[in-house]
Structure formats: structure tokens, C-alpha cells
Amino acid sequence: MALPTPLQAFSSVPKTPAGNDKQTIVNGEKMTGAQALVRSLEELGVKDVFGLPGGAILPVYDEIKDSTKFRFVLVRHEQAAGHAAEGYAISTGRVGVCLVTSGPGATNVVTAIADANMDSVPMVVITGQVGVGAIGTDAFQEADIVGITYPVVKHSYLVTRAQDIPRVLTEAFHIAATGRPGPVVVDLTKTAQTGDMYFSWPQRMILPGYNPTTKAHGRVLADAAKMFSQSYRPVLYVGGGAVRSGAQAEIAELARVTGAPVVTTLQARGIMPDSDPANLGMLGMHGAVAATGAAQRSDLLVAIGARFDDRVTGDLASFAPTARVIHIDIDPAEIGKNRVADVPIVGDVACVLKDLIPEIERAQAIHGKPDLTHWWASLNKLREDYPIDYDQPEDQPTDGSLAPQWVVRQLSDMADPETIWVAGVGQHQMWASQLVDFTRPRSWISSGGLGTMGYGLPAAIGASLGSQRDFEGRKPVWLIDGDGSFQMSSEELATAFLDGAPVKIAILNNSVYGMVRQWQTLFYNKHYSATMLRDGEATKDTAPEDFVDVPDFVKLAEAYGCVGLRAFTEEQAIEAIKRANEINDRPVLIDFRVWKDAMVWPMVAAGAPNDEVTYRPGTKPLRRASSQGADDAAQVSGAASV
After folding, report:
1. What is the distance in angstroms between the CA of the first residue and the CA of the last residue of the chain?
2. How does DSSP assign 173-230, residue by residue?
3. With 185 labelled, which of 94, 128, 201, 369 sits at a CA distance of 20 to 30 A?
């Protein structure tokens, strides 16, 4: 029998009239719950809040004044508030905050909550709720947001008393930011907002049982160090948890001390500069052949803040088949969930690595350092033979004159080194992760686990405002988006313009849902069902009177007060990028016309073994190598059979 959600359970309890609700009298300043919420956010150091008002949260909005110490950013859709808070949190390391109303306002932000949960983004979502006496009556705009979000939050609160607000906010921020970061929902009844309370600060948290492990326990560090001393094909498999932990220095030092190559997940792009020879790049479905091959042929796989996601592993049973596993993660639920770890280490990545590196150095002093010459020779050969690159079309395509990969590479080459890169979801996301030259952590923001189309623009706005807050705007923000993904949140151009977020937007406009079309091409006999957007099918030779866009992205940008540009040719593209880089007082959108049949390579088909990675059609470098014989794979010297 299913248990009731917290709101359902609460609605079954007889309600006491609000006037008879005796709250504990404490020393402090008397104020309403709404005033206490605003004051608590100020005391917690919140500088920016994203949201959209509505009836059930109006008492709080009434207390947001010119004198309020945080900035409020009005979005045009509640989902965008959540994604903007995510972009802000990832780029700054702060907790993102959004404030929305009950019912549809709260349900609209559910996608962003689920996205933050999948990608471990610290976020506090404050939602309005009907009054205590109306709970369970199907009152106007009542929705059980605590129950709805229960599977996709780190924690949630239903607040019915004004006096509880400062403590709940203190706990919510602590929970969101500590341990494995994640979203926390605070559902605030109108009763709590309008009731009186006595404010005091700081607040004592009541969190029995919540004590995330940060330092490794027992002999696991010595066991891990011993494994390194016995490994001739080690790989450091680094995930987004390492970025959240701020462990970039420790990752670089571990790679230096052990000599092991580094491969990253999508979320960890930038934790090590792409120019570092130890960095093989991203592995998995659309990862570099060298990175995927390294994991497949490793004898020691060190998962660092990673969760063995299916987009990384392909067929899980055949992933890294000869490797022993060291798994470092602050969330004990992740260890052993998909792949059994030979040495499980629960703890904060940066903290664990600081303790592990000296253990490895001690083991090396006793046993020596394994010779990885053969291992690196084989990996460098893969890197040389199968680089991340792209093919220009032999004939000028009829549906656009630009290769989308070329556009991404030009954006990267011409960008400020401090640029924060944001992507939507689709082919453009993969090309950006492959072809942008990343140099530092927290410079890459994209929806990973949930794959949320429409994420890009609001996340870019959050990152831009975060850059202004923490870096005085020195870090420009480029959004690389697809025409399909962009249209899911294009209304936020109003937010970008009016709230002074001068994001630069590159739309790779192929007039189709590109990644879906790629799958239809490869796996569905080119049956392009419901993927033709027809939003810009034209060429450079199209007569102006015949040129019809639905929408016309240039006019759309201009309608929102932004600069709109369009490029059909390489010369036009270069000029548009130069101009965009010079404009810093308003958003700039460039509509790049690209050909619809471009493909993301390399690729591992969903559910296939990673050894089946296709570099280009007809070329499967790992399968060909593995079929040369088992003798190569079994070389005692540790040479990889790739």
C-alpha cells in the first residue's frame, strides 16, 4: 500500500483555526513570515533570486523592495527561473535560488528541479502554497508540490508556521550545498507567510542523521594506493562531482603523480585544460576514441565523482571489462549502484584526493612507479589516428552553406579565454563539448543527466548575472544552441535584455531536431517523423522575397531589444562573431545557417558496447583492434590492445 505524501498526510489532520495557533514566543524582532523569509535570504548572503510572482506567494513579493539586499530577476516562465538558478550556481559555486507561486507556477519549475537533481546542482526552490485551512480542498492553484517533487529533490519542506521560516531556510541552504549538492524545495503556505513570528539570527539547525562523510575512513586509501602500484593501464575517470568539489588542482596532481591519463564525462569538461597532454577528453557515446578506448582497455579505472552513467558506459556488462575499480564519491548510494567497486571510497573528492596522493607517493617510494610507456604509446596512437574532427561536405549542401562543427570551432578560436560556455541539448551540445577549447573549470554549463531542451538561454542568463556578481562581468557568456532547443525558452530574451545579461547566442539553425534526425537516419531508415521544423530552409541564393522564416530569429532578437545577425557563408560568420564579441551592452543573437545532415561522430549506439564506437561510418577502431587477437590484450607488460 502506497504511503501518503507529506501534503496528503497533512490534509487529513484536523485543522486548528489560524487564530488559535499558538506559536512559541521567543526573543527577537516581531515581523510576518514573509518579512522573515526575505530577511533570512539576506542573512544567508543571497545576492540574486530568480522568479515570477503569483497569488499564493504575493506576501513575500510584497516585502521585496528597493532596499532589499538581494537582486530579484523577473523571468518570463517559471522553468526558466530554475534553469537560471542552475546556471548561476554552476558558474559561481553559490546556491541558486528561485521564488515562484503555487499550482502551475510550482509545477512549471519541476523540470528544472529534476535537472538540478540529476546534475547535482545546489538550488533552493521556494514555492507558494495555499493557506493551511485550504490544504486538501482542491483550492484554486493548489498542488501538492512536495509530493510531486519527492522523487527528484534532495530534501523538501512544507512550512505551516511563520516561526519555522528562518530555521527551515538555514537548513535548506545547508542541505543544498553540502554533501552531494542538490535541489531543496521549501513549500511555503500562505498561513506561514502572513502569520506573525519573532525573528532571531543565526538559527540552530535540527538535522538529526544528516552528516555527510567528507574524509575517507579505514584502510581504503592504502588499498587504493596499492592498486595504483600494481597497475600498468590506469585511467582517471573524472565526473561532475569533481567539479562540484572544486578538485581541479587535486585531479591535476593525481595525474602527475601517477602518470595516469584523464578522461572526463560531459559535466567535467574543463576540469583539466584540453591542452594538457594527460587529458584524453570526453569518453562515451560521443566521446573521443582515445578516451573511450582508454577506459575499455584499462586495468584500473578510478571513478572520481562519476556515476557510471549509461551514456558513458554503453552496454554496462562490457564496460572496462579488464579493470579493477576504485570509486570515489560523496554519495554512498552511487557506489556499487551500477558497477561494483573493488575499493569504495566515500568522501568529498577534493578531501579524499588530498589524503590519497601522499599514500600513493609512499607506496611508490617502497614499490617503485609502474612503467606506463607502452600504455601511453598506444593511447597517443589512438589520439593521433582518431582525433576529434569533422568532415566538410564534398558538395555545397542545398539547405545551408556552413558546417556546424566549423562554426563551433570558430566561436572557440575567436572567444575570450575567460568565456563561460553554455549549451542547450542536442547535436550542438555534443559539438560544443567536443570542439570548444576548454581551459578552466566552471566554464562549461549544460544539462547532462536529464537532457533538458530549453535549458540553454535561461542558464546562460544565470551565468551572465553570476559573472557580473562575482567577476565584474569579465567572463563573457556564449550560448551555443539549436533552433529547436532555443525555441523552448526564447521568451527569456526579454529577461536577458531588461535585466542586463549581455549573453552572446549562436544558433546552429539546421531547421530540424538534429539529434533526433541523426537517430532517425541511422536507426529508423531515414523516416523523419515530426523532426522537420521548417524554420529557415533557405540558401545564400534565396531571393529576399522568397525568404520566409518561422520564426525569423533576427527579427525575434530585434523584437526583444537584442542585436540580431545572420550568416550563410564563412565570411559572414567570421564577421558576425567579431561583431558579437565587440557588443557587451545587450544580448546578441547570430542565426548560423548550417546543413541538416551533419552528424555527431564518434558515436556509440545506445546500449551497444563501447568497443563498437564508430569513428566515421564503416570505421570501428576499437572493434578492429580487439579482433586482432587475445594475445595483445593479455600482454604482461601492460601494453594496451588498442
Report:
1. 53
2. HHHHHSSS--EEEEEEEHHHHHSEEEE-SS-----TT-----S--TTHHHHHHHHHHT
3. 201
**Alpha-helix runs per DSSP H in 368-509:** 373-385, 404-414, 427-435, 456-471, 483-486, 493-498
Q: Are both 218-386 and 393-593 of the same fold? A: yes
The residue with cell 501538492 is: 144
Q: From 391, 433, 425, 386, select the one nearest 291 (Cα to Cα).
A: 386
* Non-local CB neighbours of 16 within 8 Å, separated by 6+ positions: none
The pLDDT of residue 14 is above 80: no
Catalytic residues: 78, 140-141, 190, 515
| CATH class in words for 393-593 | alpha beta
> φ, ψ for residue 388 (rounded to 5)?
-70, 110
How many angstroms from the chain centroid is the CA of residue 323? Answer: 28
218-386 CATH pick, 3.40.50.1220, 3.40.50.1820, 3.30.450.20, 3.30.1490.190 = 3.40.50.1220
Q: Where are the domains of the chain?
A: 27-199, 218-386, 393-593
pLDDT digits (tens, 9 = 90+) for 558-616: 999 999 999 999 999 999 999 999 999 999 999 999 999 999 999 999 999 999 999 99
Give the three-class secondary structure for 123: strand
CATH superfamily, region 27-199: Thiamin diphosphate (ThDP)-binding fold, Pyr/PP domains (3.40.50.970)
pTM over cut 0.85 = yes
Predicted confidence (pLDDT) per residue in 162-189, tens digit: 999 999 999 999 999 999 999 999 999 9
Q: pLDDT tens digits, residue range 382-419?
A: 999 999 998 776 555 555 579 999 999 999 999 999 99
- Using CB atoms within 10 A of its CB, is residue 608 exposed (0-12), middle (13-18) or buried (19+)? middle
Which residue, among 460, 526, 512, has the nearest Cα to 483 in the 3D structure?
Answer: 512
What value does the mean pLDDT of the chain take? 92
- The tens digit of pLDDT for each residue in 297-321 reads 999 999 999 999 999 999 999 999 9
Confidence of residue 628 (pLDDT cuts 50, 70, 90): very low
The helix/strand count (H/E) of the chain reads as 26, 20
pLDDT digits (tens, 9 = 90+) for 68-122: 999 999 999 999 999 999 999 999 999 999 999 999 999 999 999 999 999 999 9
Q: CA–CA separation, 467 vs 446, rounded Å? A: 16
- Rounded distance, CA 618 to CA 339, Å? 31
Task: Say what the pLDDT of residue 176 is.
Answer: 98
| Residue at grid coordinates 577534493 | 350
Neighbours of 631 (CB within 10 A): 8
What does 311-336 look like in DSSP terms, one character per residue? HHHBSGGGSSTT-EEEEEES-TTTTT
Residue of 236, 249, 164, 248 whose CA lies nearest to 198: 164
Q: How far apart are CA 582 and CA 579, in angstroms?
A: 5
Distance, CA of 38 to CA of 129 (rounded, Å): 17
Query: Which cell is 119 given?
Result: 546534475
pLDDT at 180: 98
Relative orientation angle of helices 570-582 and 404-414, to the nearest 10 degrees: 40
pLDDT computed for residue 627 by the predictor: 46
Q: DSSP secondary structure string, 6-28?
A: HHHHHHTSPPPPGGG--PPP-SS
The overall longest dimension of the chain from CA atoms, in Å, is 82
